[in-house]
Design brief:
The chain is of the alpha/beta class and 216 residues long. It is 39% helix and 26% strand. The protein has eight helices and eight strands, in the order H-E-H-H-E-H-E-E-E-H-E-H-E-H-E-H. The strands form two sheets. A six-stranded mixed β-sheet has the order 2-1-3-8-4-7, with helices on both faces. It has a two-stranded parallel sheet with strand order 5-6. Helix 5 links the parallel strand 5 and strand 6 (133-136). The chain is elongated. It starts with a helix and ends with a helix.
């Protein structure tokens, strides 16, 4: 009986969570810390990776919950729920206004199989900009430093590009991407997964309300 009550309260068992880096380090580090403090006896496992590997781990049953970039092609057996939207902006060394799109680039971007790369490429092509990629990296910090060194232009989430010791200056907002909560459709309901999902959703709602109140 005690075990059942503790499991229902998310204080027993385990939870395996996957997150892309910006979710774990920028959007929800305080929420993850609070969740672990509230459930100290729960076995908590966090895997930080890019979206595609996280979706694949969900499909195989290696994760219970993931926060990923929404994909245009759904993964079999996976259901998603929108969590938050992020702006993707164009960055070049020194920032400033951009000229005609046909003269943009060359680019340093996420790898070709990245969901965010797909969003960026489609948005650039819609603008009439050539997508000449001279280097790629899954690490936003590496892309940011490539731009600072003058190796090329990039497109990054503003939260990552404009933070850190050598932040970039935005030139133009290009597109938006959606981060989603992802689960296996066939998985049994796990109280810990429900509790963490609700905590993340509440955090986003409170953040949006705070921004609206500060900008009446």
């Amino acid at each position: 009986s005690r075990w059942a009550q503790r499991t229902k309260a998310a204080d027993e068992g385990s939870i395996r969570v996957g997150m892309i880096d910006i979710a774990a380090t920028h959007h929800f580090p305080d929420e993850l810390q609070a969740f672990r403090a509230q459930h100290p006896d729960l076995s908590f496992h966090l895997r930080v990776s890019s979206s595609r590997p996280l979706f694949e781990m969900l499909v195989k049953g290696d994760l219970d919950l993931a926060v990923c970039v929404e994909t245009s092609k759904p993964f079999p057996g996976i259901v998603t729920q929108p969590l938050l939207e992020e702006e993707l902006a164009v960055y070049r060394q020194g920032g400033g206004k951009l000229g005609p799109a046909r003269n943009w680039g060359p680019w340093v971007l996420f790898p070709e199989d990245s969901h965010t790369r797909e969003i960026i490429s489609n948005a650039l092509l819609a603008k009439g900009a050539p997508v000449e990629v001279i280097a790629d990296s899954p690490q936003p910090e590496v892309l940011r430093e490539m731009v600072n060194l003058g190796l090329g232009w990039t497109v990054l989430p503003t939260r990552q590009a404009e933070s850190g010791e050598r932040p970039l200056t935005p030139s133009e907002t290009l597109a938006r991407r959606t981060l989603v909560l992802a689960y296996r459709s066939s998985a049994a309901t796990v109280p810990a997964v429900v509790a963490l999902s609700e905590l993340l959703q509440e955090s986003v709602i409170n953040s949006v309300s705070s921004v609206r109140n500060s900008n009446p």
